[in-house]
Write a structure and sequence with these properties.
154 residues; OB fold (Dihydrolipoamide Acetyltransferase, E2P)
């Protein structure tokens, strides 16, 4: 503990930077989104100390608390409630296919066939009663069970 106390008294920049890095590491590990603000506040205190301004530990802790609260409340107020729309999984690449265009690689039989979208071959389905020949341009209108595309003629 004496090592940390001595480090803080001689160069608090590194202590606050380490605190910011640990909190940011926890944010990356948990993905909560709320630990970014205390990590940023600790980084701001580190930068303040780098400029030579020494406030003392109680004032720095209070400033971290205030900065964290302000950042958290501001974010909750101004950020959209659901920034991911109807799909909370931003890592699902198939969702990005909706609205893309492609080409039917085979004739559709009974509403089922294959399409090439973005250089990848996908199983696809049409709305009931539609007929589609190979080479026809298609547009992706949805994803079925995460593995098949719902398409229509473009």
């Amino acid at each position: 503990m004496d090592l940390i106390t001595n480090l803080y008294t001689t160069d608090p920049f590194w202590v606050w930077l380490a605190i910011a890095a640990v909190i940011l590491g926890l944010e990356v590990a948990t993905g909560s989104g709320y630990l970014m603000w205390p990590a940023g506040a600790a980084a701001i205190i580190a930068v303040i100390n780098l400029t030579g301004i020494r406030m003392g530990l109680p004032a720095e802790l209070a400033l971290v608390a205030v900065l964290t609260l302000v950042a958290t409340l501001t974010t909750k107020r101004w950020m959209p409630k659901n920034i991911h729309g109807d799909n909370p999984d931003i890592n699902d690449p198939s969702i990005r296919l909706v609205g893309r265009r492609g080409v039917a690689t085979a004739n559709f039989v009974d509403g089922r066939g294959r399409v090439d979208v973005d250089g990848k071959d996908w199983a696809a389905e049409l709305d009931a009663g539609e007929i589609l020949a190979a080479g026809t341009r298609v547009e992706v209108i949805g994803i079925i069970d995460g593995a098949r595309l719902s398409v229509r003629a473009a």
